[in-house]
Amino acid sequence: MIDLNLLRDEPELVRESQRLRGEDPELVDRIIDADARRRSSLAAFEGARAEQKSMGKQVATASADERPALLAKTKELAERVKAFQADATQAGNEFDELLRQIQNVVEGAPPGGEDDYIVVREVGQARDFTAEGFQPADHLAIGEGLRAIDTARGAKVSGSRFYYLTGIGARLELALLNAAVDCALRAGFTPVITPTLVKPEVMAGTGFLGRHSDEIYHLGTDDLYLVGTSEVALAGYHSDEIIDLSDGPLRYAGWSACYRREAGSHGKDVRGIIRVHQFHKVEMFSYTTVEDAAAEHQRLLALEEEMLALVDLPYRVIDTAAGDLGSSAARKFDCEAWLPSQQRYLELTSTSNCTTYQARRLSVRERTESGATRAVATLNGTLATTRWIVAILENHQQADGSVTVPEGLRPYLGGLEVLIPKA
RNA sequence: GGAGACGUCGCAUAGUCCGGUCUAGUGCGCCACCCUGCUAAGGUGGUAACGGGGCAACCCGUUCGAGGGUUCGAAUCCCUCCGUCUCCGCCA
């Protein structure tokens, strides 16, 4: 939810943001109309209600003679109050529904759609496998050779896009996630293991129930949603609270399973564990002041790059175009690692600045020096996911099917330096 | 799953049986000021969020776990739901 005052004072700014996203700019004007209707009907209701309350007091103190006449009047007034209230409630609901449709106001993201990102920087050097004299295998072939990834049995038991991580595969994931938690701890984040089932209002509050709601698993019997990221649970953590940011941002590192339906991605990344229905992730989540949000966004990006350096992957950072932003994000940076088998980049991390959008929807506020309350900003960013295994196996593979363990990860694998294929 | 108790403005609690004087009282905490040579103590006042109108002091409305209902009027009566606690059952 965006700031209503911004929409009133600078409607053109919001219209332009909607255009950049490829969304309807006229929604802004429909909201302004709905706001006017809401306010006039609210004034009518409140006036009638005030009258009703004061007459109620007269009834209480009236003598037995006066009472019948007063009661007749108040009875009639009660009808009017009820009607006015129904109008006001309806106008309020219409207004809320429209306001919730407006996506966050874009801040600095390049215009365009999915392919219109800007490459911020490229880091590290992709290996030249031709010069090394062998064809790089894909992560699944390597993983199967190591007895680390089993997609066949995953499909047998749970269906397509499910998998088992076995032996070194399981250890590799734990190592990565533990390294991510350590990275977060060093940076002052509080590690949190979150719920992965959340209520509708929390899912809606984070902005995931809009256009892409078919991406989300819903348990109808219990009306609960399976989270696609611990961001959801961490955003809900301080919902309906007034938090204290006077000592700096509140920073959490969520560890959770993540569930995604992957609707509409049929036939895409079907091989291996690149695009799966369930995976694990360590996710950073910060609550900051509005003023500090952009700087915090850079801090989260820096931590993501620290993790990528730890596992020694070549990658690039992209500034996502406005049309490819989630509805909550004002700006988003992705880190994409090089994928030798496919000669392309693969998204490993994503960090979004949601400014006050989620905080307004979830009612997370802070108290300013003057004693007033105002919405905080929220940001999130990936520190490690199961998918990282893909890039690690492929980039550190050797001609004989073994994989060199990146130095930064060795302490998390008991000093193991190389992963050897099993016969 | 069954039975019971409870949910009030930061915390604690009064009010609910018997609807109107509740504009929700009190204590603690917190803030400001006053007093006492320091400390401690004491005194006075203030102390929720959200929304609407002036856009400043102020006025009005909503909110007593949530949502419905009864009533001229609901913290108070009725219904449904949620949560917490205690006991029982079941599972681990």
> How many distinct helices?
13
Low-confidence stretches: none
> What name does CATH use for the topology of the largest domain?
BirA Bifunctional Protein, domain 2
Q: What distance lies between the first and last C-alpha atoms, to the nearest angstrom?
A: 56 Å
Question: What's the number of structural domains?
Answer: 2
Mean pLDDT: 93
How many DSSP E strands?
A: 18
Radius of gyration: 27 Å
Name of the CATH homologous superfamily of the largest domain: Bira Bifunctional Protein, Domain 2
Structural classification: alpha+beta
* Main pleated-sheet profile: 8 strands, mixed
Task: Explain what the structure shows.
- 40% of the residues lie in helices and 21% in strands.
- The protein starts with a helix and ends with a strand.
- α3 runs antiparallel to α4 and α6 packs across α13.
- With 423 residues, the protein is α+β, with helices and mostly antiparallel strands.
- The chain has an 8-stranded mixed sheet with strand order 1-11-12-13-16-10-9-4, with helices on both faces.
- It binds one RNA strand of 92 nucleotides through α3 and α4.
- It is found in: Cytoplasm.
- It catalyses: tRNA(Sec) + L-serine + ATP = L-seryl-tRNA(Sec) + AMP + diphosphate + H(+); tRNA(Ser) + L-serine + ATP = L-seryl-tRNA(Ser) + AMP + diphosphate + H(+).
- One of its GO terms (cellular component) is cytoplasm.
